[in-house]
Amino acid sequence: MRKITREIVNAFQNSRSLRIGNSRTNGESLWLFDNKIAEIRRDGLWVSNGGWDSKTTKERLNGLSGVNIVQRRGVWLLNERVWDGRWVNVDAWNDGIEYVTQQSTEEVANEPEFDITSEWMEEGYSRPVYTVFHTLEHSSIALAEAKLNGEGIPTRRMESDTNGVYRPNYFIIVHPHDVARANQIINN
């Protein structure tokens, strides 16, 4: 591993800001040539090739704990699985879930809001307008998300607020323009 990779990754993984040559980190994200390639989110380490399957990108990512990228016959393998470079949560990826979400937090912040209404009312709960999947089991939501995200449909999770009185309902909501296609994917 090159010295620049060791130093920039060390700063990133220790939540420190650093800029060295073509790489920089603010302690939360890691960039190579102004392309974000890693990000620490609430649910763990996320990686992307930033649209470049270069040797330098591979080296920087390989410097991260829990990341092992090799190239065989022109195809990148992330932790022994074929990977196309899109954003993945490394832990979820290792558990066999390909795309929990494909977007960085910056990309999501610039998108229109999802409908997030769900209140408990006397006649029952209101289902969010753009719901394409509903369950009472939290554990089953990740598979439905992975299925939609694998088809390029961004999703958000939502949980109904029951104040501990009722069992919560879990929803996957999508953008209004993705509802019809998402319903077809989920129902097939």
Summarize the structure.
The protein is α+β, with helices and mostly antiparallel strands and 188 residues long. It has 6 helices and 14 strands. The longest helix is centred in the N-terminal third of the chain and has 11 residues, at 3-13.
Summarize the structure in words.
The protein is of the alpha+beta class and 188 residues long. The protein folds into two domains: 3-108, no CATH class; 120-187, Alpha-Beta Plaits, CATH 3.30.70. It is 26% helix and 27% strand. It is built from six helices and 14 strands. Strands 1-2-3-4-5-9 form a six-stranded antiparallel sheet. Strands 6-7-8 form a three-stranded antiparallel sheet. It is elongated and about 55 Å long. Residues 100-123 have low confidence and may be disordered.
Key traits:
alpha+beta, single chain, three-stranded antiparallel beta sheet, 6 helices, six-stranded antiparallel beta sheet, 2 domains, 188 residues
Structural class: alpha+beta
Poorly predicted parts:
100-123
Order of helices and strands: HEEEEEHEEEEHHEEEHEEH
For the sheet with most strands, the description reads: 6 strands, antiparallel
Assembly type: single chain
Helix content: 25-40%
Return the domain count.
2
Q: What does the overall shape look like? A: elongated
- The count of helical stretches stands at 6
What layout of secondary structure does this protein have?
Layout: H1 3-13, E1 18-20, E2 23-25, E3 29-32, E4 35-41, E5 44-47, H2 55-62, E6 69-72, E7 75-78, E8 81-82, E9 88-89, H3 90-94, H4 105-109, E10 120-121, E11 124-125, E12 131-135, H5 141-150, E13 156-159, E14 170-173, H6 179-187
Antiparallel strand pairs: 1-2, 2-3, 3-4, 4-5, 5-9, 6-7, 7-8, 10-11, 12-14, 13-14
